[in-house]
Write a structure and sequence with these properties.
By secondary structure, this protein is mostly helical.
Length: about 325
């Protein structure tokens, strides 16, 4: 294709030039080389202004939009997906649902959460009417994510609480869909620290979706996190414990899974501390520490050491003894 493109006279055979750019873009798209796919798709668009509603042009607009999204041009991806929706068959529910889902992801990437909810909801409606039933839990999860983000913007307002409750409803119905379809108060210090700052969720992977177990674990995290925002630590604790049941607890677990386990133990420690379960908080912090030390994660290790120090100090201030072996851990 590159040789043919070099030999072609664009002014004599403009249609051939356009088709060669399209074919090169498609090849790079299939190879997941989105930078090169974007370059060729964009050249075709700017130089030849392709139009029409043929299947070729429908596929081109959708792939161009996906390529824009994958190279970080979410604004441009919205433009392409809107064009794709306009020329696509309005009676093809699966295609329309897929395009609205892509629009939702692009708006979510731009933190335009209300627009994202609108398009995810449209995709959900289309899938419920006859699209892909296995995609319904992921769409409900994505709707929940955006309600959660809306609720986190001003978490002390009434509207924020409503948004968080809507997020929770979306997550819980998503879990149901996965199962059905398949896929005493003590004196306390300043509180414990969350180590998740060092392990951000992989947004692009979440956008694509996971297998059934991965999706379930992700939803348990989201549900637990929403309950945390709503000030319900006991319910949050319940869902992190559910997630823990899906995690390999052996020492031979992979690095990403061990990092995930360290985060879960850290959350369990924080929530146990909030619920006054000091021994549990100590135990979970120690288990998180073992994982962060095994992975040589200095930030996570320092956070766990701080949290353990805080817990030991609270026990001391409460008149309780401090075990020597725990001091040696620090």
């Amino acid at each position: 294709y590159h040789i043919a493109l070099a030999l072609n006279n664009e002014f004599v055979f403009p249609k051939t030039e356009s088709n060669l750019l399209l074919n090169l873009g498609n090849v790079y798209f299939q190879l997941d080389n989105y930078q090169e796919a974007y370059r060729h798709y964009r050249q075709r668009d700017t130089r030849f202004k392709p139009s029409g509603n043929s299947l070729t042009e429908q596929t081109y607009r959708e792939r161009y939009g996906r390529t824009c999204f994958n190279v970080g041009n979410s604004e441009e991806s919205i433009e392409q997906f809107r064009l794709a929706v306009k020329i696509a068959d309005p009676n093809n529910q699966a295609q329309q649902a897929r395009l609205h889902e892509r629009l939702g992801l692009s708006y979510q990437d731009l933190q335009k959460h209300s627009d994202a909810i609108s398009h995810f909801s449209k995709a959900l409606q289309l899938n419920l009417e006859g699209g892909d039933p296995k995609n319904i839990p992921k769409l409900r999860r994505n709707i929940g994510v955006n309600f959660y983000n809306l609720g986190s913007q001003n978490q002390f307002s009434v509207d924020s609480k409503k948004a968080l409750r809507k997020a929770l409803h979306s997550y819980l119905t998503s879990i149901e869909g996965i199962e059905r379809v398949g896929t005493t108060a003590q004196k306390k210090g300043s509180g414990l620290i969350n180590i998740e700052l060092a392990f951000e969720d992989n947004a692009s992977q979440a956008a694509r979706g996971f297998d059934q177990e991965g999706e379930t674990k992700l939803l348990f995290s989201y549900i637990a996190g929403t309950y945390e925002k709503l000030g319900e630590p006991d319910k949050a604790l319940e869902y992190y414990l559910k997630k823990l049941q899906l995690i390999d607890l052996s020492d031979t677990v992979s690095v990403p899974n061990r990092a995930e386990r360290a985060i879960v133990f850290n959350h369990l420690a924080l929530l146990s501390h909030k619920s006054g379960l000091m021994e549990d908080a100590m135990s979970y912090s120690l288990q998180s520490l073992q994982d962060t030390q095994a992975l040589s994660l200095s930030f996570g290790t320092n956070v766990n050491l701080f949290n353990l120090s805080q817990l030991l100090m609270e026990n001391f201030l409460a008149g309780q003894g401090v075990d020597q072996w725990r001091l040696e851990k620090l």
